Amino acid sequence: MSLLAVLRNLMSLPVIAIIGRPNVGKSTFFNRLIGERVAVTSPVSGTTRDRVYHEAEIGGYQCILADTGGMEFENRGSDSRFFRS
Ligand SMILES: Nc1nc2c(ncn2[C@@H]2O[C@H](COP(=O)(O)OP(=O)(O)OP(=O)(O)O)[C@@H](O)[C@H]2O)c(=O)[nH]1
Ligand SMILES: [Mg+2]
């Protein structure tokens, strides 16, 4: 398969992102789903900084899985916003 065909195939797949607060096991879950140790896991909060993408098959469906950095939530009165750690 040509590189262009591979890219077209990947771009047609749905992307599923694993999001959540820091240090809750997102990268461990990501590695479990893809069946490889690709994402770095550690007991130290804030380990994942850059997103990691990998092909995965979940329930018989192909997708692109994304591991993300932990998100902290900050409340400022009625203005609730989030940012990456
Ligand atoms: N008890 C328990 N610990 C877990 C579980 N999953 C992951 N851990 C541990 O929790 C810690 C954090 O795991 P990570 O997968 O690095 O967590 P993360 O959410 O990716 O962390 P950040 O990238 O820092 O946001 C590690 O020490 C893991 O071994 C789980 O299901 N149960
Ligand atoms: Mg992580």
Order of helices and strands: HEHEEEE
What are the segments in which pLDDT stays under 50 over at least 5 consecutive residues? none
Count of DSSP H/I helices: 2
CATH hierarchy: architecture: 3-Layer(aba) Sandwich
Average pLDDT, all residues: 87
Main sheet, how many strands, which sense, barrel? 3 strands, mixed
CATH topology: Rossmann fold
Rg over C-alpha atoms, rounded to the nearest angstrom: 15 Å
- Overall, the morphology is elongated
Order of strands across the biggest sheet? 1-3-2
Span of the ends, CA to CA: 39 Å
- Ligand types: guanosine-5'-triphosphate, magnesium ion
DSSP summary, beta strand count: 5
Helix content: 10-25%
Highest-level CATH class? Alpha Beta
Would you identify the CATH H-level superfamily?
P-loop containing nucleotide triphosphate hydrolases
Write down the domain tally.
Answer: 1
Q: Which class best fits the helix and strand makeup?
A: alpha+beta
Beta-strand residue fraction:
35-45%
